[in-house]
Amino acid sequence: MEVEVKATFNPNIYWTSLISGGVAGLFVDIALFPIDTIKTRLQSERGFKRSGGFTGIYKGIGPVAAGSSPTAALFFWEPVTGLSSTPFSVALCGAISGGIAAGITTPLDVIKTRIMLADAGSKNTSVRNVAKSIYREKGVKGFFAGFVPRVLWITIGIDVLDSLDLLSDTAKQNIIDWIYSLQVIPNSDVHCGGFQGATTLNLLDCPEKYSTDDYKWGHLAMTYTCIATLIILGDDLSRLNRKSIIEGRSVAAVQRPNGSFSASIEGNEYDMRFVYCACCICHMLNDWGCVNKSTMGAYIINSIRYDGGVSQHFEMESHGGTTFCALAALQLSDQLELLSSTQREKIKRWLLFRQDGGFQGRPNKPIDSCYSFWIGAALKIVGAFELSNFKENKDYILSCQDSVVGGFSKWPGISSDPFHTYFGLCGLSFLREPGLLEVMPSLNISMRAYERLQQLWNSQSNNDVQLNID
Ligand SMILES: [Zn+2]
């Protein structure tokens, strides 16, 4: 794999880019801030109006402004190091600087979210007061609520780059402990197990009316990514409360009569994305508990559309992401044979027609590097990946690589991010690029991590030891 490296390097370009990038970032953040406020208040468990409605939509702008420039500066880490640009070093650089940027900006994000959600008319919404109250309640770790979801992408990406040894044993253990701190154990007040996405819920400070426990429940996407990350980091899953996840309290508890799944026990959409997450969880734990596989299989088959692709839910538009979810769910649940030969051939055709250099998610949409994973993995599951054009796919993914910042973006010439960096690497792994671990298409983790998981299953059955089932 080769990457062009510009022969000359003018140091002024670095400073000009740094300053203009910082200023541009600041203006974009300020311009989009009101939309972010409204979105955050709409998502608030306390309701839109009580969280402030449309008033004070610039509350919390201070921490955002403070975070804009350092983030831009961090993205210029790689030219400063003077390391040679290879796809490997550039991607690794993007992953690590993304992690550092997340580490610095997350505390500011936590403060911003709290100010946005403060009661209308509340006096204690200065950055200083909010920071003090978070520290009083939770200490330093309170500032890192929501940090793990970003760490998950970065950890998986570092594994595919075969560079997990960059994380010290202590760092790995800290991530493992942090993930277990998100595990929800059902009791008389908490109704659904699994993992929650962040410690943010633990920060609500109005116990008289909104007890934290009322809102504590697992989320299927977070449960899937947390277990996958634990496996990647070499954890033995012994602290996992399998009973609360499998036996009717988590995965099966969110299955709908039509066979689909919602993300959590209350107030959520139910569609193909969560069908996929449910299958990943059951497959990784090697236990399908009370999940009704046949109604789930029927839900998937009934979501196949006239053009051959699969939609997010009945009667919707075929989509590359949901076609992947559907096929991976069928494979993980050992039900691929539910597809008739005609359906299988039409899906292959629909998927192959998504290639236009790189891959697009739907007809008439621009190509995007992450679809080299979504469509590529789906093609691998139905055994048609070899029919795609490898060279055009590889050329497009590499054109999305940022040789200054590191990592991959969705389109050439825009900012790279951990999400597209990870999926760009997966796309290259499918093309058997050297230096990258093989990725398991359906479960979306490295084959090395999957083999470790299989060893775990074998050792459990050999020793006849059931993992924590209380
Ligand atoms: Zn994308």
TrEMBL record:
It is a multi-pass membrane protein. It catalyses: geranylgeranyl diphosphate + L-cysteinyl-[protein] = S-geranylgeranyl-L-cysteinyl-[protein] + diphosphate. SUPFAM superfamilies: Mitochondrial carrier (SSF103506), Terpenoid cyclases/Protein prenyltransferases (SSF48239). It is an enzyme of class 2 (transferase). Gene3D superfamilies: 1.50.10.20, Mitochondrial carrier domain. Residues 151-445 form the Prenyltransferase alpha-alpha toroid domain. One of its GO terms (cellular component) is CAAX-protein geranylgeranyltransferase complex. Pfam families: Mito_carr, Prenyltrans. Keywords: Magnesium, Membrane, Metal-binding, Prenyltransferase, Repeat, Transferase, Transmembrane, Transmembrane helix, Transport, Zinc. InterPro entries: GGTase_I_beta, MCP_dom_sf, MCP_transmembrane, PGGT1B-like, Prenyltrans, Terpenoid_cyclase/PrenylTrfase. GO terms for molecular function: CAAX-protein geranylgeranyltransferase activity; metal ion binding. The keyword Transmembrane applies. The chain crosses the membrane at residues 12-35. Solcar repeats lie at residues 12-84, 85-170. Its EC number is 2.5.1.59. Its cofactor is Mg(2+); Zn(2+). Belongs to the protein prenyltransferase subunit beta family. Heterodimer of FNTA and PGGT1B. PGGT1B mediates interaction with substrate peptides. This is Geranylgeranyl transferase type-1 subunit beta. It comes from Clunio marinus.
